[in-house]
């Protein structure tokens, strides 16, 4: 499932939850009856918790019946919380950032004819990063008539594009490839600090910590250690050369 499809599914989910919140009396009654049936099978009698004058660890709104109590203090609170978190976490700006993916030729062919509207919305959002916005429409017309090579990723498209002929699209691709798909890389870097900055390395300087953190985060990359040693020696030359004891 791509991100734009996920946006449609998310809008559908929010619509269903809003309908449940509007018709909460009937929806909660059906759910409560199912819960009562399950509770009866294990010999549990539904009842309200004790109502206290000062309650800090749970909702404490009074009600006449157990069904009304759980509707006010559980069902309605849960629906409001879920809708609030969905609106905070998945704002429209989040999906606008990824609409530029439609510029990838393989996605362009799959989302035709909506790809151009998605790209224009993305460019309007990042208009200050587009070098020649007036010529964007002309570039999109040329970009639509692609050749036989159809890249299927941002990296492949960025490698194959003629950056002199498609200046705006090239800038778009550079912006897109720097947008993280998730926060996993940031969290991975933070998690690595637990292994680096322990009580035995409490006096470590910031430069050394940054260097070790980068080496830990990119440990799958191959480095020329001999070249690194030579660069370090050139940056910090000694006044007296040590004799080769061998």
Automatic annotation (TrEMBL):
Where does this protein have coiled-coil stretches? Answer: none
User: What InterPro entries does this protein's entry cite?
Assistant: HATC_C_dom (IPR008906), IFN-induced_PKR_regulator (IPR052958), RNaseH-like_sf (IPR012337)
Domain HAT C-terminal dimerisation: residue ranges: 164-221
Q: Which Pfam families match?
A: Dimer_Tnp_hAT
Query: What is the protein named?
Result: HAT C-terminal dimerisation domain-containing protein
Q: Which GO terms describe its molecular function?
A: protein dimerization activity
């Amino acid at each position: 499932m791509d991100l734009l499809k996920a946006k449609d599914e998310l809008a559908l989910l929010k619509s269903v939850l809003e309908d449940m919140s509007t018709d909460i009396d009937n929806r909660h009654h059906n759910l409560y009856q199912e819960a009562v049936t399950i509770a009866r099978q294990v010999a549990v009698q539904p009842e309200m918790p004790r109502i206290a004058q000062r309650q800090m660890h749970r909702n404490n709104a009074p009600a006449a019946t157990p069904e009304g109590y759980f509707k006010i203090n559980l069902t309605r609170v849960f629906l409001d919380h879920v809708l609030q978190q969905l609106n905070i976490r998945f704002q429209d700006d989040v999906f606008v950032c990824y609409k530029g993916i439609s510029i990838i030729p393989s996605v362009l062919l799959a989302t035709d004819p909506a790809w151009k509207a998605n790209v224009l919305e993305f460019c309007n959002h990042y208009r200050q990063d587009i070098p020649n916005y007036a010529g964007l429409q002309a570039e999109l017309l040329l970009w639509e008539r692609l050749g036989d090579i159809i890249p299927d990723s941002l990296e492949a498209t960025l490698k194959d594009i003629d950056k002199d002929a498609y200046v705006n699209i090239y800038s778009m691709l550079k912006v897109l490839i720097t947008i993280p798909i998730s926060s996993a890389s940031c969290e991975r870097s933070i998690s690595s600090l637990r292994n680096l900055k322990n009580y035995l390395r409490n006096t470590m300087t910031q430069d050394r910590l940054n260097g070790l953190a980068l080496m830990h985060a990119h440990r799958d990359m191959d480095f020329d250690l001999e070249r690194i040693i030579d660069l370090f020696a050139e940056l910090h030359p000694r006044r007296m050369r040590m004799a080769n004891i061998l």
